[in-house]
Design goal:
alpha/beta, five-stranded parallel sheet, about 40% helix, about 15% strand, globular
Length: about 160
Amino acid sequence: MRPIYFSGSISGGRGDLEIYRRLVELLKAHGFQVNAGEVTSAEVGVGGSPLESPEVFERDLRWIEEVARAGGALIAEVTTPSHGVGYEIATARWRFGIPVVALFRPASGRRCSAMIAGDPGIHLVEYDEDDLEAAIDRTVACLREAHPSAPAGDAALQ
């Protein structure tokens, strides 16, 4: 199973919590091993983790590094702007060189960050909340493109 680090807003707002949960469940149903950290936890509000900031920083970087070492990818839901999500995306791309897929809902009325949408190394998947399965199908296709040498038996990319 290919590992995924799933990133989404916490401090930037928790309005998309149920969407995050549904996306993570769909990724798992596709055979991915998903680490979503505290992103899908109802106990974590906009105040963030009960851990101190340095502990969150070290823990989250360690999780991204573990995914990178295992040949995985980062998937970030970027509809709700978040400095932390942006930091994780940049870290995944530039420090660890792993594939990044950004999921964005245009119907939110927000504009996707130009730094995300304009980066040719980030696969941007626009989606509708009513069709999360199609969004995950497109995400899996992006990961296939990013991992063309994945073994034929890699269930997560089949």
